[in-house]
Every structure is written in structure tokens, then in C-alpha cells.
Amino acid sequence: MSRRDEIIDVALRLFAERGYKATTITQIEAAAGLSPGAGGLYRHIGSKRELLVAAFDRVLDSRRAAQNMPRITDLDDPRIAISVAGRAVLAYVAADRDLYRLVLRGGDLPVDLSDVYQRLFQPGFDEVAGWLAQLAGDRPGFDATAVAAVALSSLFYFAISEFTYGCPPGHVEQERFLAAWTAGLLAQLGV
């Protein structure tokens, strides 16, 4: 990991904990092991806003890289594919925990959150809706877009509830949640 990436990680953690506006460059420098107030951060990145944009861009880059990995759609058994997909979404959210915490704080971010949504989240919903439509085939009345929205939203809420409140919804552990989530999605698909 580069020094720049380390600084982005530290800044993102502080933004998520304290809020974007409440976090100072001096605090970021201190937490990143730089001399506070000496301007060392600027050797690695141009501004506080650039730190935020770099954090979002890094997540987008990791999602693009994941698109080059073996596809879940290549799995023959829909039961396994759906279970793997659920675990993958939970892993994405866990890996980007501070980013999600920051976005949930909302309000004081100097970025257009609707643009962030369109770039960060909507492609995943579209991809899952297409995949579910493919799995459902010509099943009459199947609304892949709505089913994808419900399926992904429940996964996001599960993960976010764990790191926001310290426990999953209903105190249901992840394995039980994923089993129920998979069964519900398979029922929607008629599998």
C-alpha cells in the first residue's frame, strides 16, 4: 500500500468518525504519522476534498477490478450462485465500511451524493437485476428490478446495522440471515 493510500484510509476513517467538516488536515496528518500542521500531507494529495474524492474513486476502481474476476453468473447452480452473491455483497460493504459510514453521515460532504449513488450503487443494482432476469427466464410477472432492489437493500441494511449499531437486525447471525435471504430469493425466482 502506498503512503498516499495510507493517508486516504486514515482520512476516510476520521471523516466517518467525526464528519468531513469537523476533521482537519492537522488531525489527518497526526493520525497518518505526519508532523501535524507542517503541510506534509500536501506532498501526497492536494486538498481535503481530494482525499474524499480519492476514497470514492478507489472504491469504484476496486469494483471495476472485481468485474474481471470469475462471474457469479458462471456458476451452474442458482442456489450456490445466490449464496455466493450475498456473501460477496456483504464482503464489499465490510471492505468499504468507513465509506458507507461517511455516506450515511451525509450532510456535510462537498460532493453530490446523487452522483455518488449513480456511480457507486446503481451499476450494482442494474447488474443484479439483469442477472436475476436471466435466472428467472420467461417467468411471467417477475419484476427483476424490484426483486434486485429488495435483495440488495436487505443485504446493505444487514451489514450497515452491524457496524452502526453493533449487532445485526433481530440479532440474527450472518449465516442464518444468508440462508433466509437465499431461500427468499430462490422462492421469488421459482427455483
TrEMBL record:
Keywords of the record: DNA-binding, Transcription, Transcription regulation
Residue ranges the UniProt entry marks as DNA-binding: 26-45
UniProt name for this protein: TetR/AcrR family transcriptional regulator
PROSITE patterns with a match to the protein in the record: HTH_TETR_2
Matches recorded under PANTHER family: HTH-TYPE TRANSCRIPTIONAL REGULATOR BETI (PTHR30055:SF234), HTH-TYPE TRANSCRIPTIONAL REGULATOR RUTR (PTHR30055)
Keyword Zinc-finger: no
Pfam families xrefs: TetR_N
Residue span(s) of domain HTH tetR-type: 1-63
